[in-house]
Design brief:
The chain has helices spanning 2-15, 18-39, 43-60, 69-88, 112-130, 134-144, 150-157, 161-179. With 183 residues, it is mostly helical.
């Protein structure tokens, strides 16, 4: 997937191939949206950040020289969220109780009882993730939603790999404690 994404991005950057850009957006929309949802306050913020991420990619893709497209997109997304928060005079960290961006239970949910239980679990986990400090939440989302390796997270954030690993450990440790799992 990574080499295919790189080819698509280079095709757009080099030739202005809009079909390649469209394919790239489609291939990366799910994980990118999940990452942005975890870093944003509302569905509107997610949509704005998604648009801004791709606007940044379009504007700067001529500087792409290969490597992980997910890292490239993660950097653009991270910058879009941080810049939007700064413009609004607030932190990009969502409020722990904010549920405006909650995902709906899929239509194929087994039944109302299971759907309620699943939704409650989802909300509990989502609230716990949103309550994490921004740096821990960012690393956790890049890893689990973006599928980035720790090295790629280090590249995307500009943090030393040891800091990335420490933040991931702290995030998972905190989630275990909040969600009641035993170590």
């Amino acid at each position: 997937m990574a080499s295919e994404d790189g080819r698509l991005l280079l095709n757009y950057a080099r030739d202005g191939d809009v079909d390649s850009l469209s394919a790239l957006v489609i291939r990366n929309a799910r994980w990118l949206t999940a990452f942005l949802r975890g870093m944003s306050r509302s569905d509107e913020d997610v949509e704005d950040a998604f648009q801004e991420t791709w606007a940044r990619v379009i504007k700067s893709c001529s500087s792409y020289r290969g490597g992980s497209v997910r890292v490239y997109l993660s950097r653009a997304a991270r910058s879009a969220v941080i810049d939007a928060a700064r413009r609004a005079g607030r932190s990009p960290a969502p409020l722990a109780g904010d549920d405006a961006a909650a995902a709906e239970i899929p239509d194929d949910a087994p039944g109302p009882a299971e759907a309620f239980e699943s939704r409650a679990t989802y909300e509990e986990v989502r609230g716990a993730v949103r309550a994490l400090p921004e740096g821990q939440r960012e690393v956790l989302l890049m890893r689990f939603e973006g599928g980035l390796t720790f090295k790629e997270i280090s590249e995307a954030t500009g943090l030393p790999i040891g800091t990335v690993l420490t933040r991931m450990y702290a995030a998972t440790d905190r989630l275990r404690g909040v969600l009641g799992e035993k170590k």
